[in-house]
Amino acid sequence: MGGKRLKHRAGNNSGGGDRSRRNNQGAGQRGNYASIPTENALYESFYKQSSLIPSEEWEDFWASLQRTLPTTFRFTGGKAHALGVLKTLKETLIPHLVGIEWEGVLVEAPRALGWFPDSLAWQLSVGKSTIRRCPPFKKFQNFLVAETTVGNISRQEAVSMIPPLVMDIQPHHVVLDMCAAPGSKTAQLIEAIHANEEAHVQAAIQGETVDDASGGRPAGLVIANDADYRRSHMLIHQTKRLNSPNLIVTNHDATMYPSLLVKNEDGRKEYLKFDRILADVPCSGDGTARKNYNVWRDWSPLGAIGLHLTQVRILVRGLQMLKVGGRIVYSTCSMNPIENEAVVAAAIDRCGGLEKVNILDCSDRLPELKRRPGVKGGWRVMDKDGSWFSSFEQVGEADMREARLSRIVPSMFPSEDGKSDEDGRRIPLERCMRVYPHLQDTGAFFITVLEKRAEIGAVKSEEHGRKKMAAIARSKVGTPSGGGKGGEVEGTREGAELVPTAAASEQPPAPGSPSKRKLTEAVAGTSSPLAKKPRSDLPDPDEDDDSDGGVQLVGEEAAPGIPARTKSSNPPKKDKAPPAEEPFKYLPADHHVLENITKFYDLSPRFPKTCFMVRNAEGIPSRAIYFTGYLAKQVLTSNEGSNVKFVHCGVKAFMKQDVQEEGVCPWRIQSEGLSILEGWIGETRVVRAKKRETVRGLLKELFPKVHAEGQEGDVIGEIEEKVRGLTMGCCVLKVEATEGEFEDRMVFPLWKSRHSCNLMLPKDERKAMLMRLFNDESGIKDSTNKNSHLARDAAAALVASPIDHKSLMAQAIAIARNSTYIPSAFCVGAIITTPGGTILSTGYSREQPGNTHAEQVAIDKVLSSSSVPKEAAVYTTMEPCSKRLSGNKSCVERILECSWIRKVYVGVAEPGDFVENSGKAVLEAAGVGYQLVEGLEGECLGVARGEGGKEGGKEGEGRDEEGVCLEGGNVVM
Ligand SMILES: C[S@@+](CC[C@H](N)C(=O)[O-])C[C@H]1O[C@@H](n2cnc3c(N)ncnc32)[C@H](O)[C@@H]1O
């Protein structure tokens, strides 16, 4: 169709086809965004006066910042698979989207981001109304929704895709993602570890590789960490679709990340060092104004001031744990130099200067990405009221006693001739990368790649800065520590700096819990019992012998005048210890259950059977058996019994099925684990197909009949004979690439019942495949008669992946924490999902102006998206309200108006603080399913009453909104 213009007539005059400059067109996914004024005088004057943007570019820069961000998405998963899905887009959809005129305006076709490798990331600038009403775009949108639902496409902000691309990750690398939730970058790191693994696995299956400890899978490992327990579960949800056995999720404060042990080749334990680290730190997020209206509403220079020290500590801790020769990428979505260049320079300085750590020149990386060099010097620090300071000395002169300034520290300022290390060598800050909105129509981002050149000895503490501050205070204020506020400020800092490093072996039970008590003890010369308990005999290589290594005390409490949201510099507050995780217990390779499985599936003796584990203290395979990579196993077992908080590892390989029949193996292959197992399964449990029609039949018909010999039907034609000969139970369907049929091979788990078979795929996935492979949008057939033996067989075999309601509720709790606490209403979080558990939208109390309820916000987002699902479920941390004191429509009424909401999962019933709620009764009476998700009631109530939430601001600003889960709160495009 090339450049030919296709005219599509609009049904009415509303809306436009393109994104106008300042009207926030396309912002329907963000609810009332269009009505939010994109103005903030202090924010504007800060960046105008900071001279970061050349004056001739200012207009363009500012106008770009005020425009709504285009939608960007990435093809995810293994490269071959991602390229396959991309091919469908390019060949079947894009040609119909080029040169389209809609309502008299030429509509921009979706386009690949030139700088992203292999064209696997795309940008869509067209407005929502065009997408909804213009037929070719509607079809494109159906494709996006279907592929997003099954995890082949992930919405991610363009600039957020950059850091993993400059990390140069190899499959054998040990990678740490220090601040990982919600996990969009972690997904990229995992994909990099698994790049090109298919060929290696094939070689291992053929017996060509010697090192098959992981069955040809990559030797590397990604450890993804987040200090916020609930967000760490968001991370698990987000990365689940990648089915990586090489992922561990931990829950620690990154400023004091524990040194992990691992057994070396001689079986002795040593400390794990990382080849690559990502420090995508919490930041003020002021580069996200294009998608996060809170920036316009709340921006203050104190956001950055409150975060600087935490950012430095995270980066320093990362550098300590890095291998010599390894790289750490530091990134933020803030434009402020004190969160960026100043942090990089301070970390280099504290680690011993450029001899130990240098900034890599990445100017040859991603050549099509437009960027600006880092700022070499000359930046200033702005106070809350807009006063500027060019040097720390000026702060002292201005008002050292003002507690509100107590967070301003010397490392926030450039030295006179730019930043230099201890030996006076200039730190090449221009090698840092700054991305601005007007350069390529993106958000703003800061990225720096640092290389560790030599082992770092004792890390310099903030002593230097403290002394400097103290000297200034003395000279300006008078007495060293007594009398007046000046003394108090200094005294506080002194105490904080005296607290020793919390080494891995001395982790307190909950992250983020270095407390005032500890501070008091340290100052008083006592120490906690925990601090005395060594976890191993090894000297900790990362342990500082002076007072810093990340103990978070200076920034522990916001200084007066600093809004609570800047407290995100601290590890998120813990109201109580998070629930204990089930332990990870590896099964001996000769465990009788594994032997049974091996026999049934004729599993190759060379498959690494020592890497199967279960999640219970007794080590009993009762429900699920997981598979992990070899190094993941080493890390989990080497740190068993320590205080390291592992919250996730392993891919579900087998699930136990209730089967009555004699001789049937109850352990079915879980689709997550299929790609790991399939090559190693013997021919007795393999069914081979070639024809497109066979796959189509299996996708369309839920339970195709397996006929008796001589009565073959046509649904599963070519495989019927083989399937008939199989004993009941699970097997593997392999569809080979064949000329004239499929170009790529595919593998599915298949359940053979007595009279039927069933492709073990969730309905969402079936629909997406029907659309992608056959352009078939007509849906799925279930021709079983409910009372027939076929239906009974089918019911027994129905094996869609179970949804983890608890994990979704944990995410809803995390979302609820965004609510601003007010005494007259609860803080609630809500998520709307497809029946398969894919998140469609999120909402929290008061997210939209007024006392808006979480369910209301989430529903509005779905309703304002371009497609409303046929079926959906709501997860809400508290029973939906049936009555509102304001007289506004209740959440129950809103839910009932949406006939597509079939089920409501609730974290806790509403206590009678404000009104008597009969939400449950009304919903049930109306036929809407209602289920309490047990085990999180206390957390739901706590968050509802403001524990761990915010009093007047948003943590991390727009950063919370990154990734599919939270990005604009909506994945429905
Ligand atoms: C900018 S977001 C990370 C975004 C993520 N890298 C992604 O691409 O999806 C920052 C994260 O840091 C976490 N965080 C805040 N303080 C932390 C700390 N001290 N240690 C570890 N994580 C922290 C927050 O919970 C938040 O999830």
Automatic annotation (TrEMBL):
The protein's name in its UniProt record: SAM-dependent MTase RsmB/NOP-type domain-containing protein
GO cellular component terms, A-Z: cytoplasm; nucleus
Biased composition (Basic residues): 1-10
Source taxonomy: Eukaryota, Fungi, Dikarya, Ascomycota, Pezizomycotina
Domain CMP/dCMP-type deaminase: 803-921
Keyword terms, alphabetized: Methyltransferase, Nucleus, RNA-binding, S-adenosyl-L-methionine, Transferase, tRNA processing, tRNA-binding
Region (Disordered): 1-33, 461-583
InterPro entries, A to Z: CMP_dCMP_dom, Cytidine_deaminase-like, MeTrfase_RsmB-F_NOP2_cat, MeTrfase_RsmB-F_NOP2_dom, Pre-PUA_NSUN2, PUA_NSUN2, RCMT, RCMT_NCL1
Biased composition (Basic and acidic residues): 487-496, 572-583
Domain of life, per lineage: Eukaryota
Similarity field: Belongs to the class I-like SAM-binding methyltransferase superfamily. RsmB/NOP family.
Positions annotated to bind S-adenosyl-L-methionine: C179, A180, A181, P182, G183, S184, K185, D226, D253, D280
Domain SAM-dependent MTase RsmB/NOP-type intervals: 61-453
